[in-house]
Structure formats: C-alpha cells, structure tokens
C-alpha cells in the first residue's frame, strides 16, 4: 500500500510554468534526488542499489533511502533476484511513466476538489 505523501502543492502554485520534475517532486512529496532516481530507473529498469549509486554518483545509503521513499509512494517496484552463488539482490524498476502521470492527475484532481469545496462552503460569516 502506497504511503500518503506530504504534498507540497503550494510550491506549484507559486510557479507559472513548473518543470515536470518539480511537479513530480511536489505532488508526491519527494526530494529532487528522489525524483532523479525515479527518472533514472525509467531508463534503467531492474537496476540494483549498486548500479544506481554508480549512475547517480551517490553513496549506497542515500540511494537506498531514495528507493525506500519511492517504493512507499508507489513509484518503484522491488523484486528479489537470487544469485547463482547464493544470496540475493534487490532489483528496482520504476512504474511506467503513463501510470505515474495518471497518479499525478488523480492527486491534483483530489486536491483541486478539496479547494473547490473550501471555496463553496465559505459563507463569509464570522466563526
């Protein structure tokens, strides 16, 4: 079950033409390095933490934390692959971009509906 992100939609309201990466970051409540990790995984599905650490030029612990957050948000899937010599390694794959876009639309639609309700319910009276 995906964790509910702490949206930072107010940050989007301050921008007239935000980049896709900024929208992704604000809507899912993730940091820039997590957004970059997601986008790299879109291009390199099935990557391990070691491979991502090398590609992103980050240490393994930072990549591991990014992947954990992305997994919690439902943006990344994790599969365990058994190694020939024993043991296993986790491989990570980003959800397909169209699926992520749909999640973005749904989150923004829900937020917009909430704001519309606030506007509609305001009666101007002193509470």
TrEMBL record:
Q: Where is the Transcription regulator TrmB N-terminal domain?
A: 24-89
- The species this protein was found in: Natrinema longum
One short Pfam name that applies is TrmB
Q: In its UniProt entry, what is this protein called?
A: MarR family transcriptional regulator
Superkingdom: Archaea
């Amino acid at each position: 079950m995906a964790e509910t992100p702490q949206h930072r939609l107010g940050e989007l309201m301050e921008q007239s033409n935000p980049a896709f990466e900024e929208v992704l970051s604000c809507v899912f409540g993730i940091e820039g390095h997590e957004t970059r990790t997601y986008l790299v995984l879109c291009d390199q599905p099935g990557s391990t933490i070691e491979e991502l650490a090398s590609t992103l030029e980050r240490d393994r612990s930072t990549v591991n934390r990014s992947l954990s957050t992305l997994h919690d948000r439902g943006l990344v899937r994790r599969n365990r692959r058994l190694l020939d010599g024993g043991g296993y390694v986790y491989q990570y794959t980003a959800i397909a971009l169209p699926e992520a876009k749909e999640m973005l639309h749904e989150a923004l639609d829900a937020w917009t509906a909430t704001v519309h309700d606030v506007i509609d319910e305001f009666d101007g009276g002193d509470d």
